[in-house]
Amino acid sequence: MDRAKRILTIVGIVLLLFAHAGGASIASASGQPGEDGSRDDGSGQTQQREYMLGVLGQYYDSADITNESALKVTRLDTNISRGFGYDSPIEESKPEFFISPENYSIRWSGYIQPEESGVYVFKTLSDDGVRMTINLGDGHREIINSWGLLSLDYSSSRKIELEKGKFYPFVLEYQQGPLYAAVHLFWELNDVPLGVIPSTAFYVDRKTHYEYVNEPKYSNPLDRDGDGLINVFEGEGGGAYKEQGNVDYDWGWGAPEGIKSDRFRANMHGYIVPRYTEALVLTFRVDDALRVWIDGKLAIDAWDWHNQEVFECKVDAKANKRIRIEIEYADFGLGASIRMGWKSKALGLESGIIPREFLHEKE
Question: Residue 136: its pLDDT value, please?
Answer without folding.
Answer: 94
